[in-house]
Amino acid sequence: MPKARIKQKKSRLDWYLSRIRTMSPPEIVYRVRTALKKKWDQRSKMSHLPKGSIDRLPGTLFFLPKTEREITLRDYSIFGHGLNYRKSIDWHRDLTTRKEFPRKFSFDIDTRSGKNGNVKVVWEVNRLQYLLHICLKYQQSKEKKYLDLFVRHIEEWKEANPYLNGVNWYSNIEVNIRIINWVFCWEMIEANELMASDSEFKKFVETTWLPLIELHARHAYRYESKYSSSNNHLIAEASGLFIAGCYWSFKDSDRHIKKGQAILEEEIVKQHSANGINKEEASEYIQFITDFFLIAFLIGERSGHGFSEAYRQTLQSIFDYIYHLMDMGGNVPYYGDDDDGKVISLPTDETHFNNFRSLLTSAAIVFNDPKFKAKGRVFDLKNQVLFGEEGQGVFDSLALPEKTEPETRLYKNEGHFLIKKGGDAREVYLHVDIAPLGYLSIAAHGHADALSFFLNIDGKPYIVDPGTYTYHSFPEWRAYFKGTLAHNTIRVDGLDQSVNGGPCLWLNHYQAEVLEIKDSPEEIVLKGSHNGYDQQGVKHTRTYIFDKKNDSITIIDDLKVANDETHVYEYPLHLHPDVTVQQEAPDRFTIAHPGERTVSILLDERLKTEVLRGSESPLLGWFSPSFLQKQPTSVIYSKIELTGNLQLTTKIKVSHEK
């Protein structure tokens, strides 16, 4: 057997062993039962297709947008690679590597090693979110060729993806994203009216589309995520199941509604703190899961299946956290994973649609709160579809506050500290992370970033979290981007703060502790520690002092060492790619965006410091603006080897003038 194949099999075995370590005994029993269920389904359900009978046509729950801008069908971006959906699509092929996933029993397919390609790319295509672009183009033009294009894609997808054949039935979250997008497609092409006027389309709906939708709903019901996997996946699954039940009157819709709604009611509280902070510790995922909760909420209210007051209040708290997390420029800085996930995708001229802003516009309407409008700003195409003219009337009627001052929020229980100062189009924004690693026993989307920080000035990122880049492909890059060295904190002896058990798996989770919070008129003091290096005999404690008058930040790192041993400490400061850096002295640097305010950084003179950019040995100086995309950026990288205790002081000063 070739060495590469042996290494691949060993890697897969190591992952399974690590994964089992994160499971409780009840979860192991559940996993065994699920494996048996899958084998039963392999024998009895492959290629099954239900009749798709409904008792009545769906009621209209959303709105046709009234946009004067002509919708142009362009290639759909799949992580920066264009998908030409005017042509037929190979539903099993990774368009970035040209590798292809086998057409066999879904749960037997290797989705992790990369030998078949990057499964995220294939799944992104098969979310079928581009269909909504086609539907909106048809709605705007009424040209039958666009309706025919939509029908052809559904028919070809059905033929190429018989039930439980191929990789597109492997992940339940993908199944449910398709369900939700089909609801919007149904509304945008006005399928009810088309069925009454077009016999050919009616036949397509009754023999192809509705049976496929019912099949998806049944799968969503049968394969929910549980135990250590019940994170954003469970939210997506419950949302899709609930929405399908509310919208289409299949024979099992009532129990789909009941199960989906019960899970959503439980998980919106369970997966968020009292302040609305999501426990997965991945900021970009917040917009993703909030759309699941929001769309389910709107459909529930409009179909007679409303949610509890606790659900509504938690949803409002989530929006409140988004509002405070966002800087004055509309940026929500990275922490944790980001894979560009969206629930629905609408045609826009923006290169990167700011769904956080869009969500705040939605929040302004749902909660009739002008605060959210101040950062949402625009009643965009997505909100036209969700709320229609009545919603726009509510949005337009909200009076903006005359002046909005940046607000500091110190979330002690969650370990997120949003320190802001400014006014008159100026803002210093320091985010300090003394938060847990992630959610549940695998902490799938957390990064090893305890005691890290980022710094935005006047709505522009200066010192940043470099992002995510990849999950299962390029394992060395995955390990780097989620590891401690890719964050603005201290790494000890070349080790992460927790043990990397796989692409979306952490072992031996560190515990972060908030030791001190002081907020006075003169300064804010934060002090925290973590136990990630206890096995190395090192205790890392970091203190942040924010001087409100002088816009300066002092960072004091205390590294207490057991037994007077020698250790190697690495300390990176990752800069945004647009930031320039000047080294004024061995320990002094000046950074700035072109034409913007400068920031001076003074490091401990004992450190050996250099500026690296786009280094591959070691991996350092990279930024991922989007999933599967990376670019070189500058990192101020410091290193020291020392015996005994170490204290380092860093001084950061934001200039008052450009």
From TrEMBL:
<protein>
    <submittedName>
        <fullName>Heparinase II/III N-terminus</fullName>
    </submittedName>
</protein>
<keyword id="KW-0574">Periplasm</keyword>
<feature type="domain" description="Heparinase II/III-like C-terminal">
    <location>
        <begin position="425"/>
        <end position="654"/>
    </location>
</feature>
<dbReference type="InterPro" id="IPR008929">
    <property type="entry name" value="Chondroitin_lyas"/>
</dbReference>
<dbReference type="InterPro" id="IPR031680">
    <property type="entry name" value="Hepar_II_III_N"/>
</dbReference>
<dbReference type="InterPro" id="IPR012480">
    <property type="entry name" value="Hepar_II_III_C"/>
</dbReference>
<dbReference type="Pfam" id="PF07940">
    <property type="entry name" value="Hepar_II_III_C"/>
</dbReference>
<dbReference type="GO" id="GO:0042597">
    <property type="term" value="C:periplasmic space"/>
</dbReference>
<keyword id="KW-0732">Signal</keyword>
<keyword id="KW-0456">Lyase</keyword>
<feature type="domain" description="Heparin-sulfate lyase N-terminal">
    <location>
        <begin position="83"/>
        <end position="340"/>
    </location>
</feature>
<dbReference type="GO" id="GO:0016829">
    <property type="term" value="F:lyase activity"/>
</dbReference>
<dbReference type="Pfam" id="PF16889">
    <property type="entry name" value="Hepar_II_III_N"/>
</dbReference>
